[in-house]
Fold:
Amino acid sequence: MSNFALTIIGRDRPGIVSQVTEILFQLGCNIADSSCSILGGQFAMILIISHPEKSSQEDFEQAFAPLEETNLSVFLRTLKPGGEQRLALEGELCMISVYGSDKPGIVYQVARELGERQVNITDLNTKLIGSPERPVYVMMLEAVLPPTISLEELETAMDELKGTLKVDISVRSISPVEL
Amino acid sequence: MPVRDIRVYPDPILKQICAPVDVGDQGVDELIQDLVDTMVASGHSVGVAAPQIGDPRRVVVVDVSKSKLGRDNNHGLLVMVNPVILESEGRTTMREGCMSVPDYTGNVTRAASVLVQFLDRAGGEMVVNASGFEAVAIQHELDHLDGLLFLDRVSSLKTDVFRRKTY
Structure:
């Protein structure tokens, strides 16, 4: 079994998912994890797929050609064995909201603070909202804290950043409840 | 009083509507004990519904008193036979997971408080007003009696703030 990460992006319109998955179905591919969303006017698909026999990029090229012809960009990444498996992420899951008037470097400076502390970002969304005259930047991210850092410590770090970046930041625990 | 295995989806019993417990049902006390034992044995579990251990009767146990979220607001161990939600109020969203659906969690919006009527272990009529995490746990477990999993209730894909259209 070979595993691949497939990325497809193109101008949004109805029917993209159907077009892509029909090809995957006819190839005999399995879709494992996937995430698809509209960003700007673009529809972006990221899928982890597998195939029992096909193992080289060339095996897929011809099948994906019709997608390229309809202005979708297709990128296939071959995964090393085990590359399809998610690492166990132990630790508290938290949600961080960052928002404020738009300026360069919001994402980077928040991400740098997290990266330095080995906080693992598992989901990140940003959106530019507000009016063209007064643009507001909103960033929502989910991250797993390593055992070495507490939620309070992260809050302290984010509070400092609030001052230097002049944005609002809040941090809260969203660890799932097991019922 | 055995600890029983938790049934995992796609076990069909999890999608079944459970039958009310009859007044003269002698076996219900044994079922209750198994539910409590299974809940305790599973460590951090705050509730188990009968179908989760393979029994299609309307019985759940809930105990959030040992959990961080429910510690300060709870009724201790609740044994609920034939439970019915009489009233619900408010809305709250939590990221839920379930022992019967491993490796998946989702945001579920439920009532913030519920007034629930049930028979206790001794068969006595009870009415309890629960709020906070206990209310969420009760609603989650009661859903199991109607063949509903939290997957049927997921209200949003992860970060839902961006899902709304600009006005």
